[in-house]
Amino acid sequence: MKVIYYVFLMLCLASMPATASNLPADSLSILKQQADSAYANEKFSQAQQIYLQLATQGESVSVYYNLACTYYRMDSMAKAVLWFERASLLDPSDEDIRFNLAMARSKTIDRIIPRHEMFFVSAWNTLMHSRSVTQWAYGAIIAFVLTLLLVSLYIYSSSVALRKTGFFGAILTLMLCILFNVLALNLRNQNTNKTSAIIMAPAVTVRSTPTQSGTDLFVIHEGTRVEIRDNSMRDWAEIQIADGKVGWIEKTTYETI
User: Fold this and answer.
1) CA 11 distance to own-chain centroid
2) Which of 69, 125, 184, 244 would bridge with 14, disulfide CB 3.0–4.6 Å?
3) What is the rounded CA–CA span in Å between residue 108 and residue 216?
4) pLDDT digit string (tens) for 78-129?
């Protein structure tokens, strides 16, 4: 029973929202309608302000997506990429988000060819990001419930065929439960740690050391995604870009996803 308790505890923690709204639901709904109306009437600056206010109240795929679209229409591609990325974290399976994220990225300056990954690493990351944390958690719960039902079938059935079905089926669904749970927890940890960021400054010189006197290594531009390797210093962070190049940039030049 302790194992069952801890499994459900981990699943519940994995699917908990990160923030809670400070405004009543009715107020949020009204603000959302105002923002949608402003966007429909091409009042993008007004829509952006309201969507941004809504985004501070809690995580929402639709708000993040609409805010990203607003920035896109305002020709602010770095902000558009940032908010499409944040929306994609909440719902990686949404095709509209992926399409519009690709469109926004195509309008940024840098064209970085990602370095080759090991097949199993690439396959694991693709699988992990194919669903949201909540979807993986729900899948794990369903698999766990099926495991209990199949175990019951194995214990209480008088038919040999049904007992075999229950035994092997329970093993399969238990393995799926563990897999889905690992995927949910890994994705949640990745999202919580916020090790990815988008460059916001027009151009950033990446240096060999965390000082202005460090050797210039290369230049990256707004809208480029970077991975944060070392965030321990106050003003500087060590980053890595998709092709594997590493260096130091000032923290004021990016926003974490």
Assistant:
1) 17
2) 184
3) 22
4) 999 999 999 999 998 899 999 999 999 999 999 998 887 788 888 998 899 8
CATH of domain 196-256: 2.30.30.40
CATH code for the domain defined by 21-106: 1.25.40.10
Round to whole Å and give the CA distance between 63 and 224: 22
Model confidence pLDDT, tens digit, residues 182-235 = 999 998 888 788 889 999 999 999 999 999 999 999 999 999 999 999 999 999
Most distant CA atoms of the chain, gap in Å: 78
Contact by Cβ (8 Å): 218, 248: no
Torsion sign over Cα 123, 248, 254, 15: positive
Q: Is 138 in contact with 15 (CB distance < 8 Å)?
A: yes
Record the pTM. 0.78
Buried b (16+ CB within 10 A) or exposed e, 185-221: bbbbebbeeebbbbbbeeebbbbeebeeeeeeeeebe
